Each structure stands twice: as structure tokens, then as C-alpha cells.
Amino acid sequence: MDCPCGSGAAYAACCEPLITGERDAETAEALMRARYTAYARADMEFLLASLHPDYRDEHDPDQIRVWAEESKWHGLEILATEAGGPTDETGNVEFVAEYTYDGEHNHHHERAVFSRHEGRWYFVEGDPVKGRPYVRDLPKVGRNDPCPCGSGRKYKRCCGS
User: Fold this and answer.
1) What is the 3-state secondary structure (H, E, C) of the chain?
2) Per-residue model confidence as pLDDT tens digits over 72-89
3) CA dist 29 to 16, 47, 83, 89, 110, Å?
4) What is the total count of domains within the chain?
5) For position 131, what pLDDT does the model report?
6) Is residue 4 part of a domain?
7) Is residue 44 located within the same domain as residue 120?
8) What would the mean pLDDT of 118-129 be, rounded to a whole number?
């Protein structure tokens, strides 16, 4: 069975050993992938255990459980990593997770912060990445302006209706 994290490796060789505690994540990205997989499998024990001990009070376990259990997870895309390697103490992972919740398809775009504590990687916090604002190529057409289609009629009576 392929791992839900999208690495292309089998679950048993990829995220399962991290989730079961057989081994620790070597990098922040590996922990990010394991956390995504834990969401996809609704493994609350791992999700809570992989939170940095200093920041656990900031997370609502009930909210995490609802999101994990009631979502259908479609995939994870790692966009960028900064530090977070085997010899680093901190790291950032930018990712997009696709899921369906309450019948609505969503993209969760976040920059996650990870830190080592007593030699192990932990998730600290995530900052949502906002989409880029829409930039109009052409000037905005008002209701009473001539329609840009060239009909000669007002926009509100032509293409704007």
C-alpha cells in the first residue's frame, strides 16, 4: 500500500515506523509527511505526541480529532523546505494538503515550523499562506460603461446581465 503522504514509498517503509514509534523522523519534512499521514488515518495519538511539548496547550485535541476524522484526505504537496535537516535544530516546511470536509474540497496551504526537543523533531506551529491577490489585466467595467464586447450597449444591459 502506498503511503498517503505521496512519497511514492510503501506505508510500511515510509510513515508507519514514525507513527508507531519504531523510529524518529530524521528531518522536519519526514515529520510533516508523517503528520499528514496521521491526519489521513485519524491517528490522534501520533498527532498529539508529535506536537512540541512547549506548545501542546495551544492546540485543541477535539478540534484536531474532528478535522482528521471527518475529512477525506486527497494528497500532500511539499512546496519548499528551509533547514530541518538531520543536523539542524529548527526547520520550516511549506506544503499544500488537499482534503474534502463537509462536502467541500479544500486546499490547506501552510508554512509549518518544526523544532528539535531532546533530539526529536516536533511540530511547533503553522502559519497559513494566503493566496496572492487577483490583479485585473484590464480596467474594471462599471454598470453604466459601454460593454467591452463592442455591442454599443451599456454593460448592465449586455454582458453584465
Assistant:
1) CECCCCCCCEHHHCCHHHHCCCCCCCCHHHHHHHHHHHHHCCCHHHHHHCECHHHHHHCCHHHHHHHHHHEEEEEEEEEEEEECCCCCCEEEEEEEEEEEECCEEEEEEEEEEEEEECCEEEEEEEEECCCCCCCCCCCCCCCCCECCCCCCCEHHHCCCC
2) 999 999 999 999 999 999
3) 15, 15, 10, 13, 13
4) 2
5) 73
6) no
7) yes
8) 96
